[in-house]
Amino acid sequence: MSKALAVLEKLMAREDRLSLAAMGNILKIAIPFNAPHGFRLRKLGLDEVRIDLPNNKLNHNHVGGMHACAIATLGEFCAGLTLARHLGFGRYRFILAELSVQYHRQGRSDLTGVASLTTEQIARVKEDLQHQEKLLFPHSTIITDAKGETVAEVRTVWQIKSWEKVRLR
Hints:
Elements: H1 3-12, H2 17-30, E1 40-44, E2 48-53, H3 68-87, E3 92-103, E4 111-116, H4 119-131, E5 134-144, E6 150-162
Antiparallel strand pairs: 1-2, 2-4, 3-6, 4-5, 5-6
């Protein structure tokens, strides 16, 4: 495992404010597409991942609300980090296989994405990966506004595969 990956894994195991800030900065570099959105990692726990999306002009659509793609990206980011938190970046590769979003209302404030996994779900994923080369895992993220009202539900399906079984050209 590379030194950078080892640092990332150590940071993911911690939940203090400094570690979350460091992790957020590393993820801006590791996933440059997400950097302009200004995501703020609020919780990276075993029970849930919580990320905020700021209500700024860069994230707005043509009518002044939060852009649909910014909301979708928030949902994808939360779900992917829940898997990485439990399974690790160094051991498994995560690829988004499907993405769908059900929008309930316009987002006109800072938004928060929350994705959670139970220990039973993770145990089942680990068990399935012992017997399968790759696994498709459906996951959901709930996006809420500053009032706690649901703005959207982002449904993702992740292909999970051990790096040992990935064949690169």
